[in-house]
C-alpha cells in the first residue's frame, strides 16, 4: 500500500469566499458525528481561525479532544493543518487545501493529505483509512456549501 500523499479535488457550486467560510467557520454545521472522537451527535466541532489555532471537538459534557493545529491561514484561498483525529499529536499528518475560482462562479478545492511516511509501518494503513474517511466526509461539506448563503 502507498504512503504517497492523498490528492483529491472537488468542485462546489459557490464562490471561493463562501467555500472557505463553510470549511472553517461553519465546520460544525456539516461535520458528521461518525468522524469525531466521541461519536456524539451534539458534539461541537471548532476550527480556530488563525495560524496556530486548534481544531477540536467539545462534547456536551465539556470534554475537548484535539484533532490538529492550523499551519496555513490565508483566507479565502489556502488552509493547512496538522491532523491527528483519534491519534496522538506526535502522529499528526498534514492537510493542505486550496480554494480556487472555477468556471461559472464555482470553486475547486484541491486537497493534499500527506505525512504518512513519518508513521513508519503504520503509514500505509492510516493513509487507507483516511482515504475512506475523505470519501465519506466530502459529500457533507459539498451539501453544506449550498445552504446558508
The number of helical elements comes to 3
The general outline is globular
Strand content: 25-35%
Q: Could you give the distance between the termini?
A: 41 Å
| Major sheet: arrangement of strands | 1-7-6-5-4-3-2
- What summary fits the major beta sheet? 7 strands, antiparallel
The helix/strand order is EHHEEEEEEH
Low-pLDDT runs = none
**What is the percent of helical residues?**
10-25%
Q: Round the Cα radius of gyration to an integer and report it.
A: 15 Å
Q: Label the structural class.
A: alpha+beta
Round the mean pLDDT to the nearest integer and report it: 95
Instruction: Give me the count of strands.
Output: 7
List the helices and strands and how they pair.
Elements: E1 6-12, H1 16-24, H2 27-30, E2 44-47, E3 54-58, E4 64-74, E5 78-83, E6 93-101, E7 107-114, H3 123-144
Antiparallel strand pairs: 1-7, 2-3, 3-4, 4-5, 5-6, 6-7
Annotation keywords:
149 residues, alpha+beta, 7 strands, 23% helix
Question: What report would you give on this structure?
Answer:
With about 150 residues, this protein is of the alpha+beta class. About 25% of the residues lie in helices and about 35% in strands. The protein has a seven-stranded antiparallel sheet with strand order 1-7-6-5-4-3-2. The longest helix is centred in the C-terminal third of the chain and has 22 residues, at about 125-145. The protein has helices at about 15-25, 25-30, 125-145; strands at about 5-10, 45, 55-60, 65-75, 80-85, 95-100, 105-115. The model has no long low-confidence stretch (mean pLDDT about 95). It is built from three helices and seven strands, in the order βααββββββα.
